[in-house]
Structure formats: C-alpha cells, structure tokens
Amino acid sequence: MNIGQSIKSYILSEFLPDEDPAQLTDSTPLITTGILDSIATLKLVLFLEEQFSISIEAYEADSEHLDTIELIAKLVRSKS
Amino acid sequence: MTWSSSAVLGELSKIYTRLTGSNNKPDARWNAIAEHFGLLLIFAQVALIALVLRELDMQTSGFRRVVYVAAVGFVIHHLLPFKLRLPFFVLLSVGAIFLVLGTPNTYHSLWDVAIGLSRAGAILAIGAALIGICHLPIGFWKRAGLLVVAGGMVAIFRAGIFSSADLAIIWPILAAIFMFRIIIYLYDLSASHNRPPVTRSLAYFFLIPNVCCTLFPVIDFKAFCRSHYNDVPLAIYQRGVRRMGRGVIQLLIYRLISQLLAIEATEVASGTDLIQFLITNSFLYLKVSGLFHLIVGLLLLFGFNLPETNYRYFLASSFTDYWRRVNIYWKDFMMKVFYYPTFFKLKKRGPTQALIVATLWTFFVTWALHLYQTWWLKGTVSVTWPDSLFWLILGLLVLANSLWEMRRGRKRRLASGRYDAGDATWLALRTAGTFACICLLWSLWNTPSVSLWVDLWRYADRHTLMWGASILAVILIATIVLEVLPTLRNQPSPGPADEWSPAVLFRKDLLQCSLPLLLIYMLAQPAVQSRLDDPRLQPFRDTVATGDSMMGYDARARGYYEQLTDMDESNRQLWETLMRKQMPMRYSGPMPMSPVKDFRFRELLPSQHLQAFDTDFQTNRWGMRDRDYELAKPSGSLRIALLGSSHVMGWGVRQEEVFETILEERLNNTHAASAGGLVNRFELLNFSVQSYSPLSQISVLQNRVRLFKPDIVIFVAHLADFEWAAYDVHKALRRRVPIPYEHLPRILHEARVVPRTHEVLASMRLKPFESELVAWSYKKIVEECRAMGALPLCIFLPVPNDLPLKGDRVDKLLALAAQAGFILIDLSNVYDHQHLEEIRLEERLHHINPKGHTLIADALYKQLMTDPRIDLVNRGRRVSVSVAGSSPAKKSLSEVYHGKHIEYRTVHQELYSERVPP
Known about the structure:
By secondary structure, chain A is mainly α.
C-alpha cells in the first residue's frame, strides 16, 4: 500500500466509516470542508508520525500541508 | 475560463448568433464586453449596499465613506494590470486613513491636511517600525521581546501619558491593526523561510476598512497570501457582495433584536422577561458576525478570497462545533499559535494529557486576550466574575466534548453524504441542547454580577418553560430544514457556498441579498413610510429609524461586544471623528444615589462625603447637598426650599461656593439683623439634584419638601426644561415608573412613544408637546407649593450651554412660568459683561464656576430684597410676629418625638418611605 492509499484508508476508517470510499479522492478538501477538524487533525498527525516514523511540526498542521490526501502524502514524502 | 463564459457569455453568444447569422463562437471582444458587464453588475450591487448603509444610518459616517471609496476603488483596481493591484490596494488603504482621520474635531471643514498628515503619518511610522522588528535578523524570541517592549511604549501613550490631544485617537486604531495580526505575522515569518514582499506585508496590516473598525476579524497571514486572486476574479467579487449583503441583513436583524426585544438583567421582572433575557442576549452576537461579514466582503472586492468568518453558529450541534463556527478566524488564530504548539510539545506525555493542557491553555489565552483587547480599545479593563466564568465554563465544556470526540470519534460526512432519520433526530436534539446551553452562558456573560444572574432564576415559572420549549422547537425545525432536509431529498448537498459556479452565485445572491436589500431600501423611503402609518407597525418603523449615529445616546448596559464598541470617554474623540458629530458628555464618576420609583428616578444618599460630580461632595442626613437642618422649622426662622438640577446642586464647585450657601449666609448676616432681631434665621434648603427635570421637582415637593414646611419655594428654571420634561416622561415609561397623572400618558399616546422607542426618536416625537409638558409641570409645582402654604417663586437661570440666549425660547419659558402662577425672577442678564470662560468650569464641564455662582447669589439677593411681590423683609417680620404672638413655642425635635416614644430612626423612615435608613 503506498503512502496515499495508507492515508486514505486511515481517514476512511477513522473519520468516514459510513461513506462511499469512491467519494474520497486525492483532491477532496479535508480541512476546509470540516472533515478534518482540530481533533481529527491531531489524530491524523499522531497516525502519520507513528505509521511513517516522521516528526510533524505544529506549524505544519494546517490546510497548506494537510488539506488533501495529495498534500498529506507530499508532506510525508518530504519528511521520509 | 472566465466568469462570463458560464452565464452571461452564453446569453451573449445567442445574441451574437442571431445578429451575425453565424454559429461562430464569440471572440475576445465579446469576452471583454461580458466581463465589463459583470463588473458593472457587481458595482451596482455594491452601490445598493452603500445606499442602504446611508439610508438606514448604519455604521459610522467614516465607515460609509470607506465603502464609497472602496466601491469606486475596486473597479479601478480590477482594471489595473495584475502586478499593480496590490500596490494600488495599499495606496487606497493608506489614503483611507488620511481621509477618515483627517476629519478635524471642529467639523467646520470636511478635511484638515495637517491633522490628517499627523495622524496617518504616526500610524504608518509606528506600524512600519513594528513590522520592521518582525523582519530583524535575530531569533524569534528576541524579536518577540522587542515587540513587547515596543508595545509597552505604545501602551504608555495609550494610557494617556505623553499623548497629544490630536493624536489620542490613533491608539485604538493602531491597536486594532496590530494587536493580534502582529502575533500571527511574527509566527508565520518564523515558520517560513520565505520573506514576503513588502507590499504584501503592508497590505496585510493596512486593510482599508480597519481605520474605522476597531473590532476587526483576526485575519491569518498565510490565508491572506494564499487567497489573493486564487479564483476567477468576478466570482470572488460576487462572493464579496454576498458577504456584504449578508452582513447588512444581520446588522439590521441585530438592530431589531436590540431595540425591540433585548432587555437587561435589571429589567427582568417575570418568567417571560427571564426567557426573553436568556434568548435575546445570545443573538446580540449578530452585531459582530454582521460587521465581520461586511468587512471581509469588502476585502473580497479587492481579490482577497478569504474564508467565512462564521457559519450558522446557532445551529452548532456540540460545544466544539460552536467553537468552530462562531468566530472561525479567532479559532484558527488560537489553534495555530497556542493550541497546536502546546499539544505538539506535550504529545509525548500522551494525547489525552496534551489535549487537556492545550485546550485549557487556549481558553485561558482567549480570556486574557479579550481583556488585552479591551484595554487597547477602551483604555481600561476590569476582571469580572461573569466574564471569567463564561470562558472557564465554555473551556471546560469544549474540553469535555473534545475528550469524548478523541475517544469515541465523531461522525463526519462527505459533501455528498446523507442523514438518515435517526442521525437527523439526534442531530436536531443535540443542536437544541447546545443552543440552550450557549444561551445560558451568554446570559451569564452579559450580566453585571453572578449573584444578579443567580437571582434572576427566582422569576422562572411555567411561562419560562413554555417559551423556552417553543424556541428550542424552532431550533429543532431550523436544523432539520437547513442541515438535514437537503440530504434527505436525495439531492447532493450544495456544499460550501464558496464552491458554487459564478452563474449560480449571481442568481442566488440576487434572490438572497440584492432583492431583500432593494426592498429594505424602498421601505426606508419617506414616501413609503408615510403609507405604512399603522400604530402596529410603529415599533418596526422606529427600529428602522434608529440609526447607529444615535448610539452615543444609548445608556443601556450591554454585553462585552457592545461595551467594546459603544462610545464612552475613553474613545470619545475617535467616535466624534468617525461620526462627524459631537457626542454628549456622560459622567462616569461615583454616583452616591439610590433608585426611587417616581419621577425623581434617583435621589442622593444621606450622610455621604466623597469625590463625586467633579468636586468634594457631601450630603447631610436628609440627603441634601447642604449643611444640616432640623426637620421642624426652628422658631423665628424663615425657611426657603430651593429646587433645581445639577447647576443649582453645585456640580464641580465646593459647597461653600454654591450660590445657595452664599445667599443664605448673606441673608443671615445682613437681613436678619435688620428685621429688628425678630427673625433669627433664614434657612435655604437645597433640594437640588443633578438631572432633575420639572417633572422630578413635583415628586421632590410631594416626597421631601412638604415635610420641611417651607415658607417659600424657589424653583430654578432653565431653557433645557423643555427637553428634560420630554425626556423624563419617556424615561418613566421605559423604566415602568408609575405615572399617576392622566395628562402624561395621553401625550405619550399622541406622540406615538412607547417604552421601546429610542430616546432620540422619543425626543423628536415629543418635541411638539414640550411646551404642554412644561406648562403642566409648572402648574403642578405651583399647586403643590400652595397646598403646603409656601409662596411659589420661579427663577429663570441661564446656564453656560444656553449662552447666548435665544430670545423667543426664553420668552416662551417665562410666559409659561407666569401662566402657571409663579412669581417670576428673570436672571437672564446675570452674566452680563462676562465672557463665557469667566463663568464656566472647563469646557467639557458645562457648569457654572464659583465666580458664576457669586454673580447669581448677588443678583438673587438683590431681587429678594427689593421685589415687592416677595416682600422678604416684611415676610420675615410676619414670621417673627407670629412667633412672638400667641402661637405656642415650637418644641425641639427631641421634645416632639420623645413624648411619643418615637425613636429618631422613625423620622428617617417617614422621610425615606420603605427604605431602611443607613
């Protein structure tokens, strides 16, 4: 499973368990649509740090870095 | 593809085809025409908003001027090449500072170059210095430290030390620009390795509406940079128009609720009042949300595609949801600078502990920064229990919610997701529950004290429950209609409005904003208003007519945001500059008074000694600002009762300098001796109290003066009696003071004045009845005097505000006094040959100084001694003859009451009716 798929799988299982997986694309806005609120963002960050053994800074927990699966994957790749 | 291609271009294509008879697609020329047409449509909508703001007297005059400038400016801005737009925006914003702050205090000229340059120059210079500190090539904490030092220096000026009068108004504006955004700016600079362009930094701080809005959304710097023309321009402008329109509508709803429905905690007297207080206070936040929509909408016109400032906060389904919706910019600011850094620092200790500390820390900072904001904008701050408890309780509720969500999760939905019946019901119930809790919290925040809030609950009854349940039912229905129904109809949720296509945007905005605003504008026209002359519509017409320029006259105590933005002495100059009118003085010192339920409204407390009314202030045991007297008139004395307002009470002068004291002393030193030693004393009892009108004096006579059995009553009349009588009759109605006379309610009914009518409107409506009110009041005063056997005297005394005197008003007042039956003493010429500055306290205090009081005492003494109608000399002799004659010697107070075994306390109780004496 690549980074993007791993992230998508986590988001679906943790935050969107009853939703159609096909509706969640790599470019679906997550923060700006409210799917990732503050609690969800912290959970996601903890998951990413644990899953990919990276360290994310506080200023990276924003829409610039975490708004879409694509951006999240890019952040993880930049840290890996 | 431009905005035009989706809607307007489609139509133009059809026209083009018909005209040319060809199927060729329109060329670039048609695209340009369509784009300009779209720009014109947007300009028309902005112009409509500006018209509504002006017609309904919304916001300050300064803000409206900024809107006019922005309405034209954004068109020029759009037509400029892209790289020139940001510099143009900066120039326009700086120009707005010059324009708004260049208004001199004298208002005789539209603009003053010198004042504008000095004020704007100071703001720009200090602002540049603060921004420069953020860019210094030193560590983050060193830069933060330097900013704190610089802020401290500015704070010294804010506190009024080393500040010039002309520059005093820049401090709240400087604070509004920098107090929060400098924190975000420094944080983002330290996190990013890229230095932003100078114009972008200047544009971020010097935002065009900020010069006239001290309450301003905390715009994030990164969001500001990212949002600049990140979408089709005309789509961004149209969104801006929608936000502005929504802001105007919310501000109008706020005005309706504030004028018609919102009541203060002290006005709660029943179960229905209680629920009215609980519900309406939470809606007062519409003032903030409406203003923020207006401000951000204005910025969208210049291509800054900023997100919403709030979103349907009344339909929040949990406390965390409320926190996320009510002020999105503030939430993002807190998350970015305080919440996430704290959580990330502590996450190694476990997510739960990190969450608890981060959440509590965030709410502590929120509470502290609200105090910080208050200090900068008002110059003072006080920590109160209701404010502290509000943030503490909200913080704990959000924390509890967050811990729940952390452990159990929260159901989220994609834009195309749907609610099932169970979820919808649960959502509606949670929303209603959250709404109820938030209303309770807001009511606590808007109550002066916790004990008062707790005390309010004794009024709770079945009406409270009934009305409360009804309102919660409305919230339930609103949740179903607005949040759930769109999904249950198997239609995809429309998603955030920002994603709609421009054509959809324009059609929706036309229906939801522009048409309602056009309707409001039409309804506000005098020709239409005159056709809606139905008494049942009067409250709504009054609300529309109660403009924001009347805010300075609103003495009602309100919540945090009203107090932050309302006019008081700390921001008087700023208000007068923005409103372009002089605002009334309002005394804010100690008021040693207690409320009474008659036309006096308040009376002085007895036996007080303190600094009040700008002087060393003392009251005797009877609550008069005078030396002590016995209740029973001593034998051989002539007693004169003096009725007046603050001028006669001696505002701003020492007691021995008041004309009443001087006159009494002179009469006792000169006249008593000349009465053959038979009159051993003249007593002048000063019953004057600040803000007492002729109507108040009727109550003074009935409740106080009669007990002292004066021989003469001197009533001091001023030109302001016309306004004061009208003001007090409406005040009695507003404060539910019993009006025992038939005449007065009839006047109020004829003038269409009801309790909720704004003071300024009420005074306008009662103006035609002023003479009738004064005539009636004067007659009642004369009746009361004669009923107690006292000679009624009226002194017409001009006060500094009246000078120079207008002959017709003076003649009218004197005629009314004479018709009422007074013996009239006209002191119109008492200040002849004096300059105004020689008889008046300093300019801001419109009261008479010691020299003025001496002149009054001299003139009055002369009149009393020589006026044959008063015949003071022989009146004195008649009193002494009656004493020396067959009348029994009067007993002293202790003799009178000792024989009846009545204690001295009972005398006080008789005087003060239900009140327990001190």
